[in-house]
Amino acid sequence: MRGVWPVLALLGCFAGCANIEDISRENYRRGFLIDHPLTRESVAVLPMWGKGDPRSYLPSAEGIFVNALKEMRPQIRLLAPSETRRTILEKGVDGAYRSTEEAFISRRVVREEDIRRLGQSLNVRFLLETDLDRVEVTEGATLVRIRGQLWDAQTGDVVWEGTGEGTGYLFLVFPQTPASFEKTVEVASRGLIRRLP
Question: What is the DSSP letter of 196?
């Protein structure tokens, strides 16, 4: 009986333990953001976008991302996606929003005029666009990738770009089980937010 307890303790340690790796990165930053952090300006978080299979995960991914953003960066004056949606419809700039959404998803050039109109209508300096780019199980691990771009609504330029990415699985001795979407998107969201200026 004595030899059984160490084995059970070891199995208990590995059963259900998550290993989700944060492989997020910053792709681009305009120089003035080093001296001009987001805490001085307001930011509208546009509704999270996606295409293909990841679209079914958008509502929960957006909620997890926004909650993490509010928790990790409470000093930023945020306009949440729900308020952004409502204001876009009220101000009649849904055409500019749709044009920006299509350009962002298809990775085409966004029109400066649309960015400026959105910024003016939302009364913010910056627009944060996020795209749930990838959700899949690869090599036994869940992979979630969120792309983010920060636009200066005064100039119509991208001033920051990053990628939040999490990949991982649960240790269930053998075989490894992919981690849940929610846990993995939380890691990807927090990785992206940590890299925001």
Answer: -
> Could you tell me the pTM of the whole model?
0.86
Please state the φ and ψ torsions of residue 38, each to the nearest 5 degrees. Answer: -65, -10
pLDDT one-digit tens code per residue, 161-183: 999 999 998 865 556 789 999 99
Q: List Cα–Cα distances, 173 to 6, 7, 50, 167, 170, in angstroms.
A: 15, 12, 34, 18, 9
Architecture of domain 18-194: 3-Layer(aba) Sandwich (3.40)
Rg over CA atoms, the chain:
20
Parallel, antiparallel or unpaired: strands 77-79 and 141-152 = unpaired
Residue of 123, 79, 117, 125 lying closest to 96 (CA atoms): 117
Rounded Cα gap, residues 182 and 36, in angstroms: 33
What is the residue extent of each domain of the chain? 18-194
